[in-house]
Amino acid sequence: MNAFFMNVIFDVKHLYYLPQYLPVYAELKTRNVECIFLFYKTDSKDIDTVNKKVIENENLYAHWANTWQDALDYFTNIKADWIVFGNSVDDLEQIHTISKTVLMQHGIGPKSCYYDVSNNGTTVRFVEGQHRLKRLQTLYPNSNFVDTGYAKLDPAFVNSKVGATVNTVEKLKLEDLQLDPNKKTILYAPTFYPSSIERFDLDFALQFSDYNIILKAHHFSITKSKYAKQLNRLKHWNQSNNVYLASLEEYNLLDFMNLADVLVSDASSAIFEFAALDKPVVWCDFYKLRWSYSGLFKFRLRKRLDPDIEYFETLTDKSQDYASLKQIVDSACANPEQKKQQRRAITLQLAGITDGRCSTRICDYLESNQ
Predict the structure, then answer these.
(1) pTM of the prediction?
(2) 112-140 burial by CB neighbour count: b if 16+ within 10 A, else e?
(3) Does residue 157 fall inside a structural domain?
(4) 178 shares a domain with 138
């Protein structure tokens, strides 16, 4: 139990922030810390309905804001000890007159925004591993960074006297998704941009009929009208009986990671997350690019993607076009141990310690510095 009363607000700008927050929330509950989740109303009734269902399913105490100004007014009224953000925000100087702030980045992928958002001045930014800690300290020497590991992965690991092991308890079964337990399973988890979705063949599901395919798309691929072509393609593949398309309500990638034998992804932090479970990853290094990111403007893509993406070369089996994908996936599934040492080393560098206790370290810091 915490020595002094403490309250924490989690700012849920988007639903996909929750998987990073929930393990910390679970630990805070054991310490009798009051937690509030601030959600934002959207222009979509469907998204708001999903958010309400998630709030109910996760048994969260939630407050709704219509705008950022509403959120600021609420922060001023509650005067929480800590406010946790999943991305950079405005008005930190004002917020810091009433509360301390945390940045827990919602992903650990290779996009340059991972580092850019840290130029934001939160009280503390929790970081995943020494590689990223040192880079951030070099970039922003006046900011406060603490290496705790990636809390989102805590439920994927179990502690024992001999150390942390992968949590193989299956909350979800392939049969629950109407998939064949006798087949190997691909988890395809692309990001929204730059994405490989539009580069996949319309007959993807048929061409990979000897596999189960779980499609776990990014939140924006499902909800943003500008990515409607991605959603249409996902729905087309979902017509096949070897495919399961995760719904918007099924927001947590971890729920599907145990079921999969191999991950197929592109410029997504899912690659680092899945590799942490010591399973093979296939990197689709081919993307559908906007005209403003191609040709003479390709420098914009390089700017969007951080040099950390170079670790994918070592960590994964790379496919440079869709035509080669099937052969590479077959090989990765047949030789799952091939990149075991690389996965272990790069996970430590870019996801940090995977001992199931990242949330404990975060909560210890919050309590010690409230």
Answers:
(1) 0.88
(2) eebbebbebbbbbbbbbbebbbebbeeeb
(3) no
(4) no
